[in-house]
From TrEMBL:
Residues forming coiled coils: 494-528
Protein's gene: LOC111298516
GO MF annotations, alphabetized: ATP binding; protein kinase activity; protein serine/threonine kinase activator activity
GO terms for biological process, alphabetical: regulation of stomatal opening
Protein name per its UniProtKB record: Serine/threonine-protein kinase BLUS1-like
Biased composition (Polar residues): 401-411
Keyword ATP-binding (UniProt): yes
Length: 539
């Protein structure tokens, strides 16, 4: 099984929308919709068309066009080249080969919610690295490496797609932006410069410019995404998380820690090491794509057949997956009310905390936020400082904070995080470290009440629990709605009781009926037995 080789003769695709027959919608991005279509004049060959709304997209149209022209000159079997592009009203249509497996993001979200196996990840990442290495050697950055931009076809070929945000380093260095990691003229980061969760810290802070190594960071995040089924911090809303990561407050709900705690998959040392090298805070220490390809993690990589068997086999079609995901998106928005969380009005459920960045936690195989500790008026900050050792354990070896210049490197267990995220600062204040390790979060609250924590307040806890209950009720409603949308039936407790009462009533009715009949029969018998004597008497 082999993917299409470089140097394949290019076909001339028509540049008018009438030549294409839309078959189905197969994806939707931030400002684009992706269709499966047929190119009628070309033997109805199946293609994918990405229709980018130029009014919604903040990307500069000339840049996109220039970039797609540049990219059409690239040729590599792991890079998805567009067949052609043209405008249709206020949309840019990018016609490209149809990759029947769709993106790795759509594959994991539909069929591998907890991530792919390490063997499959190795194959996907190796193929992606081939593309990245080629791009970098050609002097291009991709700038939007993520599972959503890695596509697979029916024979397991993996291709890196979507150069909408990528930029030629040559163009940048000769233009107004800089790519040099040492440049003094910073790259201006806008919402279209990649996707926040996958962005390297130096790109977010934008004070050192964008280099090839930022693609390597995103590659490391993509590895985590394939391993866990989602990128780190993905419970935060994408655009807001970017802002929050830089200047504002970061929220740390329990769910993230619970999921971390509950299912810890075992990953090999080689895999962890490879990802850790990509997620080094210092871009200069991250390996190049070429060097990464030589990493031991990729040594005994299996062939594409393995992907076909273990990923594509039995997978619903890309259009089917999109249909389901659309229903789910429209039906429910279960989880945090982001507006509330972010808004100054504030949610009752979470406490906000400032972060200065994040560190890769090799044990948890996750990114851990690095909380700032300088904010003196921040009660939670106080908690970190005062209770750092007991309430919030610092990663082994980091207890002096030396390995963690931005603040404490936190890996919050379930109970602790629920204390931190409670309103009114449950568990705030000084913890003198006298509580045993076996104590639960609740016990700690009780312990704090006995003198250590003067801020403990039962009313606050009740308030917190009430808010939590309300949130659970809301989620219950949304899930019920979603199930009914999908044709399922959910019977709530009240209806269940009504049904039970009705059943009992019917049973009672039935019993009464039976009793009545028996009584009637008895009466008849009585009449029969007493009948003759009566007759005799009458006679
Ligand atoms: N060439 C293609 N062949 C098959 N499916 C595709 C193709 N291009 C995109 N898709 C499908 O469409 C979905 C959306 O693609 P798109 O590039 O808009 O998404 P995205 O990269 O996740 O979003 P964005 O780039 O806007 O953040 C993909 O997840 C993929 O499943």
């Amino acid at each position: 099984m082999a993917c299409e080789e470089e140097g394949h003769p290019k076909l001339q695709f028509p540049l008018d929308s009438e030549s294409y027959q839309i078959i189905d919608e197969i994806g939707a991005g931030v400002s684009a919709v992706v269709y499966k279509a047929e190119c009628v004049p070309m033997n109805s060959i199946v293609v994918a068309i990405k229709a980018i709304d130029l009014d919604q997209s903040k990307a500069d149209f000339d840049n996109i066009r220039r970039e797609s022209n540049n990219m059409s000159l690239l040729s590599h079997h792991n890079i998805l080249n567009a067949h052609c592009s043209f405008t249709v009203d206020r949309r840019l249509w990018v016609v490209m080969p149809f990759m029947s497996g769709g993106s790795l993001q759509s594959i994991i979200s539909s069929s591998f919610p907890d991530g792919l196996s390490e063997q499959c990840i190795a194959i996907v990442l190796k193929e992606t690295l081939n593309a990245l290495s080629y791009l970098h050697i050609q002097g291009h950055l991709h700038r939007d490496i993520k599972a959503g931009n890695i596509l697979m076809d029916s024979i397991g070929c993996v291709k890196l797609a979507d150069f909408g945000f990528s930029a030629s380093t040559y163009e940048l260095s000769s233009g107004h932006e800089s790519c040099s990691s040492t440049s003094s003229s910073p790259l201006v980061i806008t919402d279209e410069s990649g996707t926040p969760y996958w962005m390297a810290p130096e790109v977010i802070h934008s004070n050192t410019g964008y280099s090839f190594k930022a693609d390597i960071w995103s590659f490391g995040i993509t590895a985590l995404e394939l391993a866990h089924g989602r990128p780190p911090l993905s419970y935060l809303p994408p655009s807001k998380s970017l802002i929050m990561k830089i200047t504002k407050r970061f929220t740390f709900p329990d769910s993230e820690n619970n999921s971390k705690k509950g299912k810890t998959k075992n990953f090999s040392k080689a895999f962890k090491d490879m990802v850790a090298s990509c997620l080094d805070q210092d871009p200069g220490k991250r390996p190049s794509a070429e060097k990464l390809l030589k990493h031991s993690f990729f040594k005994s990589c299996k062939g594409l057949d393995f992907l076909v068997e273990h990923v594509l086999h039995g997978l619903p079609s890309v259009e089917e997956r999109f249909r389901v995901s659309k229903i789910l998106r429209e039906g429910v928005d279960v989880g945090v009310d982001y507006e509330d969380v972010d808004g100054e009005s504030g949610s009752q459920l979470v406490k906000h905390r400032r972060i200065s960045g994040w560190n890769f936690n090799e044990d948890a195989f996750e990114l851990d936020p690095v909380f700032t500790s300088e904010s003196k008026d921040d009660p939670i900050g106080k908690q970190v400082r005062f209770g750092g050792e007991t309430i919030i354990p610092v990663k082994a070896g980091d207890s002096d904070g030396s390995a963690n210049p931005g603040g404490s490197n936190l890996n919050l267990p379930e109970a602790e995080s629920s204390l931190i995220s409670s309103p009114g600062g449950v568990g705030e204040g000084v913890n003198d470290g006298s509580h045993g390790e076996e104590e639960s979060g609740i016990e700690r609250i009780a312990g704090n009440e006995s003198g250590v924590d003067s801020t403990f307040n039962a009313e606050t806890v009740v308030g917190y629990l009430m808010t939590l209950k309300k949130s659970l009720d809301d989620q219950m409603q949304k899930v019920t709605y979603m199930i009914s949308l999908l044709g399922g039936e959910v019977i709530n407790r009240e209806d269940q009781l009504v049904q039970l009462i009705e059943k009992l009533r019917l049973e009672l009715e039935h019993e009464r009926q039976k009793n009545f009949e028996l009584e009637m029969q008895l009466e008849m018998l009585r009449m029969q037995t007493s009948g003759p004597s009566n007759t005799d008497e009458n006679n």
